[in-house]
Structures are given as C-alpha cells and as structure tokens.
Amino acid sequence: MSKTNIHPNIEALTDSGYQGLQYIHVKTVLPKKRSKSHSLSQKDKKDNQRLASNRVVNENVIGMIKRFKIVSDRYRNRRRRFALRFNLISGLYNWELNM
User: Fold this and answer.
1) 36-60: per-residue pLDDT in tens?
2) ∠ at Cα 56 (69, 90), nearest 5°?
3) CB atoms within 10 A of CB 40
C-alpha cells in the first residue's frame, strides 16, 4: 500500500507485522509462528532467534535516530534540508559509536 519498492535482490528481514509482504517480495524472511495445535520445532526456534538477532541491530539504530525526532514526528522544515540534517544526525550517531 505504501508503494515503496524493494529491490528484488535485497533480502528483507521483517517481524510478524509485515505478514503478506512475502507475496509481493520473494526474499522476505518472516519469523515462524506456532499454531494452536502444533508448537515450533527446535530448528524453527533457532531460525526465529537468528532472525531476531540480525534485526536488533537495525532496530537499535532506528531507535537512536528517533531520539532526535527527525523521523518520529512530522518534519516541518524545508524539505531540501531534510537530507542534510538526517546525514548530520547519522554522523553524530556513528561518531558516538566510535567513542
């Protein structure tokens, strides 16, 4: 619905909130869900854990950027400066990682 295109060669690591994306994008990885009658196998649990550990890095970066309120609130300044400010915030985050 958002009309955001994902390149077909990119693997999308998602959580269960993106169910249905696998029908639009072939390389979507969703966690396995248990049913009422069948629990998850050990392999499925390991796969879900591996997926979550890969996603947590991205989630932490998104949370840090949201702290600056540039993507969590409506951006009310000039659009042409959005990229500049976003890059500055990303640079601050990267600089903080190296300290």
Assistant:
1) 999 999 999 999 999 999 898 888 8
2) 40
3) 15
How many angstroms separate the Cα of 92 from the Cα of each of 23, 30, 61, 84, 96?
38, 32, 12, 12, 6
* 3 state DSSP class of 24: helix
Task: Determine the residue type at 41.
Answer: S
Please report, for the chain, how many H helices and E strands are present, in that order: 3, 2
- Other CB atoms within a 10 A radius of the CB of residue 31 amount to 18
Whether the full predicted model's pTM is greater than 0.85, yes or no, is no
96 vs 99: CA distance, rounded Å: 5
Convert the pLDDT of each residue in 55-64 to its tens digit: 988 888 888 8
C-alpha Rg value of the chain to the nearest Å: 18
Q: Where are the domains of the chain?
A: 12-33+40-98
Q: What average pLDDT score do residues 21-46 get? A: 91
